[in-house]
Amino acid sequence: QQAAEDQLCADGAVTAADLARRTLAAGFGAVKSFGAATAIVVAADPARGELGVASLGDSGLRLLRPSGGGASALQVVGRTEEQQHSFNQPFQLSKTPKPQDFPRLRAEGKGALIQAVKARGAAKADAPSDAAAYTFAVEVGDIVVMGSDGLFDNLEDDALCSIVEAEVAAAQGGDVDTQDLARIVAQEAARRSAETDVDTPFAAQARSAGMEYRGGKPDDITVLIALVVA
């Protein structure tokens, strides 16, 4: 099915953003474990030179491009926006137990999960169709950075650009190891998350919500980086 949809995208029958949303829905439909998570999916359309993005919650994407201000100077030319029900309450896809699952869960000693589900009641759950869709035109040399909220809560866009710029410059025109670059970005986000006397995007959001907060936000940090080469 995925190969068929990729071909539809190549033929122009669907857009990259459509493909990203379909992939998100298909992935969620295949989930069997209970839990909740934000999600982001990116699909490429080489023929159009576009990236399609489906983003639900506060995971995100930044599209970085050489600015012309120097050999390695980068600027953010595309970004996703967070989806929040309220401060620090992001949209999430969730799979929760049904009543028919309760006997098995009790036998497994998971009575607390059953109680949590009952307490939650019949609240409306976020769905793949709630994901925001984006289309970004890309160029050779662009750098795509995707990450969980632990990345973007702790690193401003300017800081992210500076880290990536330094690693691109260190490559001296050679190939950039995207896996190593992602590790370096994640480590810097983790370092800032543990600091208590720095200003971070999360701290700024907290203040906007009327809270006194300074420092990073310890959280899960996942980073994926890709280069546009053709």
Briefly summarize what is shown.
The protein is α+β, with helices and mostly antiparallel strands and 230 residues long. The relative contact order is 0.16. It has helices at 2-10, 16-29, 102-107, 111-120, 149-152, 157-170, 178-193, 201-208, and strands at residues 35-37, 39-45, 50-56, 60-66, 74-79, 84-86, 89-90, 93-95, 132-137, 143-147, 223-227.
Explain the overall architecture.
By secondary structure, this protein is α+β, with helices and mostly antiparallel strands. Helix content is 35%, strand content 23%. It contains eight helices and eleven strands. The strands form four sheets. It has a four-stranded antiparallel beta sheet. It is globular, with a radius of gyration of 20 Å. The two termini are 26 Å apart.
Topology:
Elements: H1 2-10, H2 16-29, E1 35-37, E2 39-45, E3 50-56, E4 60-66, E5 74-79, E6 84-86, E7 89-90, E8 93-95, H3 102-107, H4 111-120, E9 132-137, E10 143-147, H5 149-152, H6 157-170, H7 178-193, H8 201-208, E11 223-227
Antiparallel strand pairs: 1-8, 2-3, 3-9, 4-5, 4-10, 6-7, 10-11
